[in-house]
Structures are given as structure tokens and as C-alpha cells.
Amino acid sequence: MDIDALRSLVAFVESGSFTRAASQTFRTQSAISAQMKKLQQESVSPLFEKEGRSLVLTPAGQALASYARRIISLHDQAVTELKHSHDRVNLRIGCPDDYSVSVLPLLCELLQQTIPNLCLRLSAAPSVKLRESLDQGELDLAILTRSPDSDEGYLLRHDQGVWVSHKERDLSQLRPMPLALYETDCKFHASAIDGLDKADIPYRLLATSANHSGLHGLVSQGLAVAALARSSKGELQELCAKTMPPLPAIDIVVVAATQPHAACSSETVKQICQRFRQQDAYLLDTPAEAV
Hints:
Layout: H1 3-15, H2 18-25, H3 29-43, E1 48-51, E2 54-57, H4 59-85, E3 89-95, H5 104-114, E4 118-124, H6 127-135, E5 141-145, E6 154-165, E7 177-182, H7 187-198, E8 203-209, H8 212-220, E9 225-229, E10 237-238, E11 249-256, H9 266-283
Parallel strand pairs: 3-4, 3-5, 7-8, 7-9
Antiparallel strand pairs: 1-2, 5-11, 6-9, 6-10, 6-11
Helix pairs in contact: 1-2, 1-3, 1-4, 2-3, 5-9
């Protein structure tokens, strides 16, 4: 059905006359009559009936008017969306899920403040996988743990690896100590295993995971001790560094694709990361005292 004819039908319903409907739609009354005749032919059922000297809608006409309102609304919404879609900036960002709460939201906020009409497409994966996606042109930006002895990316935050356990069920004294660690490509995995071996602390590797949520869930249930970044530990209890092997410090950075996004130049990323560090230093809570 013709969208303009449906608009005329709704105008008739709302104004109560074809004369006013013609005025509201900037058409002649004969043009309105022709549109109603066409709608009548397409709908098969009668749309109008006489009530005294006036024309009113039949039940079929009332049903069509109800549909017409919804069709017009969707039509106008689609047209508006399509008109502005060419202005939208689509930016693909990858982030390890252990930074999805502690780092990603502030970065996204700063990007939206800087780039108008920004639409973000977020994906989660370990740093190693995100580097591959950057190299293959599948991402525009990625939040990563900086590679050892490298200068990659723009710094967001210095962080520290810490041992964590359930607040009321500290398993660090249990032998063998149950461990939940990131996969072997994570700095914390190798450091934790190496440190425990050197300290002659018996352990049992209960689980490994590329996802933070899996490790966090095991520790939250009092099933294991884990090695995490301090800013990712949430409500978990940080264990005293004096009783556990040391874990490395890490740098969390933003890395841009080799071919930068047109709306997100290297200078733009650099400035956003500078603003992140300024605001992060203010927002980041002081680490709780370890036990």
C-alpha cells in the first residue's frame, strides 16, 4: 500500500473530514479521494460507510487505520535511520574480559566524548588473540597487556598482579593449594607456577581459563586461589604479599591497527589515553589492605 495514501487515511481519521485531511497533507480533495479509492481496491473490504451526511470508517477501515499508524511510524523511523547512517562512525574494539569492567567503560566514554555519532562494536578475547585480530584488520583498537620488554601501544594504567581468595575461605594455607589461573600465555600463569615451585609450596592446578569470569567464579565460591590484576579482583580478598610468591607488574595499553581508523588517528588515541590516565588516577580506588 502506498505510504502517502496511508498518511491521508490517518489524516482523515484525525481531522474527521477529507477537506481538512487534504489541507494537512497539502493535496487536493480529489487527490485524497483517488488515494482512498485505491486503498479500497487493495483492501477488498469496504473502508467507509455513510452515517447521516458524513463518511465514517467501517470496522475494516478502523483496523487499516490502526495498521497505518504503525506502518507510518516504522517507515519514518527507517528513513531517519538511513539518512543518518552514513554519518555513523563504526569502531571495532577488542578487550580481554578481565578489563571489561575496570578499564573498558571509561575508555568508551572518552571515545564517545571525542568522536561524534560513534557506534562501538566490542569483542572479548585474550591479548594474544586480540593482537592477531589487529594484524588481520579485524579490529581498530585493542586493550592489551603490554608485551614484556616492548613499547607497544599507549599506556592506560600501570597495574600489579596479586593473589586473591574468598574473603571467608582462604585456601592459600591448604596443601596442595588449589589454583585457578589464566592460560599459559598470561604473564601471571608462568610467574605463579614458577614462584610456587621456588617457594616449595605444593599446589594443584584446579583450572585454567582464558576468561576472567571463570576464574573469578571459582574463587568467589571458595574453590581456589587465583593470580589476577589488582584492578580486576573486584570484591575478592587480596592475600598478603609476604606469604605468597611475588607476581609481576603489568602495563595495560591501547594498541591501534596498522591502518588507523579515519575517525581515530594516532594523535586522537594518544590524547584519549592521556585523559584516561588523568581521570583513572582520580577514579581508581586505593587498593585495600591485604591480609
